[in-house]
Batch of 2 targets.
Target 1
Amino acid sequence: MSGQTLEQRIQKLEDIEAIQKLQYTYGHYVDKGWNGKEVFFDKLPSLFTADATWTSAAMGVDVKGALEIVEMLKVQTAGGELGMHSFTNDIVDVDRDTATGKYLLWVGIKGSGQANLVYQSEDVRYVREADGWKIQSIVLDFASMLNS
């Protein structure tokens, strides 16, 4: 941050905070299964750019478009009783109106009589649009899955 004005440094910190909130909101919107919590499918499109992508080789998913991502998530969560995301070790780098985020992620899933705990990494690209930061792409890479 050396060579930057105080204003520029503050803006960068505010951008990082906004991006982290966006990422955690995404997790909150796709979680379900306790205290009557359901997935907020209707709110998810507002988190993505119109041409966003969501990719996971392990899941066989490669989707483009905010509405298509929501439809894919509906299929992925159908029949599930519980889904809980926990993002850790976040590294967010901002370069003006674009940013990247690297996360380690635990996802607890329960459905069809089976519980799974998935450990994975998530690489995310963000872009600043007129109404704020949006997710441009998500790439998941599975590290391990624990089954009960």
Target 2
Amino acid sequence: MVLDLLTLTAIPTALGAAEAVHQQRVLDDEAESDERQAPFYLDVFCDAQSRKRDEVHEAIVVLIDGKLRLRPKDPKTKLPKRGPVDSAEPHPFTGFYLPFPDEDLPSRPMPAAPVLGLVSTIPSDPEAAKSKSRKPKLNWVYADKDTREVKYGPRSEAREHVIGPWDWTEDEQGMTLDGEETLVVVEEEKGGFGWAVYWDRDDDRLKELDVGKKKRVLRCSLERRVVNEGGETDSD
């Protein structure tokens, strides 16, 4: 009789564990859906009341020197134009959502939605670009925890900063970080080619930081444009 009671007592626990495993699989499958992993570019929409608006509105996000920056978009190709300060063709952000590895995150109760990270292909050196057999490399996109600059780098670098959750708005177009559409662009250098992407965590145009007091900050929306031609990639 004692054995039977123990068995009966264990049934709810077993059922609860099985349901938790099922729910975790559902959450994992949603985070790794084909739709979320479809590669996309990032276009800039800006309706700020500023004389500088035309420098950023309809620009495209590119990866240069470890940061997400802006470049004018060619109206025919819809890809970035080469600017006077660029030594090579700008590499457009070309990325998708990917759950950040659990081993780099604090332990969480089960079930829990995976923390959606954001990855992008990165600029390659000229010799590597000549090899058609080599898969493009991926880096993680993150917000610097101190400066709020939006950067890209290997996982070992990204995990020290704000790696997500990244997501999209209800219409599945605008980019969000930590549940809010609070990405802005900052004019780091004048001349039209000095804009970079920042995370305005407190939605105050970065006024609590020196950058918000000294440089022009424009609110904008980074909008997803799905890439028509996909390609194989390797994560770093």
